[in-house]
Amino acid sequence: MKEKFSLKDYLFNKKSVTYLADLFFRSDNSFPRERFIEHVINDFPNLELKQRITRIRDELHIVLSEDYPTALTQIIKALPPELNTTKTDNDFGDFILAPLSSYIAEYGCKKEYLKVSLNGLRECTKRFSAEDAIRYFINAFPVETIQFLERGARSDNYHVRRLSSEGMRPKLPWCINITIDYRQSVPILDILYSDKTRYVTRSVANHMNDISKINPDFVIQKLSEWEKSKRQKPNEMSFILHHSLRTLVKKGNKKALELLGFSSQPKICIDNFSLSTPRVHIGSCLEFSFDLTSLQEQHLMVDYIVHHQLKSGGTNPKVFKIKKVSLEKDEVIHINKKQPFRIMTTKKLYPGEHVCEIQINGTIIYKFSFILV
């Protein structure tokens, strides 16, 4: 039987811990290399991924200097070479370095250490993203930290520039929440959207997608301003638009779709609709098909929405993508779709009548129902 993949064991194991210990030992041969490795590894079997980061951080606190500025100097001295600055994307760094920025956040997020700690995070993020650690400083010292990140947005190092966006994302996964208003990051995003590096612009787009869940109209207006400025190359601006608006597009937000070139009043005709499965057994598929005729040259975003029954008697709509397509006048395409209704541990399915809607460019074009049994 094939062994199940374990991310925590892949990222944090004896080999990676030994690598980290070697970094410290090479910079200072008084570092208790063997003790550090043994103490950390012995506790790993009972720890999840983020707990392993904390365990390494706490062991470093034991073996490094009790004086925080001295310990920070030891950390900076042990850092490996900076990540390759000739790359332009997907250069996240080595996860085993995550405990170093965590150390700074845990022990150095104090007024008297603020300057050296922020500078330490700037050095760490050139080796592994410090996006989680910087958020502790944003919450504790928002004015000083945002000023630090604004300067970072103009750095020659694209990892530092990315931190200025990524660290301030309102809904950054796997990280602590930040308490500042999302609008405080806008001056930084206004700098970074025109960045030449995809690693940075992807962060900007993810940041805007986060904001779209809070204030959709703000995001649409800001993206429109950026597009009109012509400061970003057309292809990269297109990437930013599509990636920033993906949540709003999935919800059928008409303003977002129009910004992407999809008219909210598509000129189309649906014919030959067929529902192959008026009764769908749990564990099988809903299947339907139709012909779509374009009455003019246009871009179309074709989705469907399943309104799942809830235990309370209400419904929960979920949008599913079919395709994006550009059609000529009178062009016809045939669409056939199968939607599985699998038994899942994370979502309970309730039998009964369900409604499904075909949505094109955010507009409901056709509605039908089926019975889930």
Please describe what this structure looks like:
The protein is an alpha+beta fold and 373 residues long. The protein has two domains: 64-259, ARM repeat domains (Serine Threonine Protein Phosphatase 5, Tetratricopeptide repeat, Alpha Horseshoe); 268-372, Immunoglobulin-like. It is 44% helix and 20% strand. It has 16 helices and eight strands. The chain has helices at 7-11, 14-27, 33-43, 49-63, 68-78, 98-107, 114-124, 133-140, 142-152, 158-166, 186-192, 198-212, 216-229, 234-244, 246-250, 254-259; strands at 268-275, 279-280, 285-294, 298-309, 315-327, 332-340, 352-360, 363-372. Helix 6 runs parallel beside helix 8 (133-140). It is globular and about 80 Å long. It starts with 6 loop residues before the first helix and ends with a strand. The model has no long low-confidence stretch (mean pLDDT 94).
Reconstruct the topology from this structure.
Layout: H1 7-11, H2 14-27, H3 33-43, H4 49-63, H5 68-78, H6 98-107, H7 114-124, H8 133-140, H9 142-152, H10 158-166, H11 186-192, H12 198-212, H13 216-229, H14 234-244, H15 246-250, H16 254-259, E1 268-275, E2 279-280, E3 285-294, E4 298-309, E5 315-327, E6 332-340, E7 352-360, E8 363-372
Parallel strand pairs: 2-8
Antiparallel strand pairs: 1-3, 3-6, 4-5, 4-7, 7-8
Helix pairs in contact: 2-3, 2-5, 3-4, 4-6, 6-7, 6-8, 8-9, 9-10, 10-12, 12-13, 12-14, 13-14
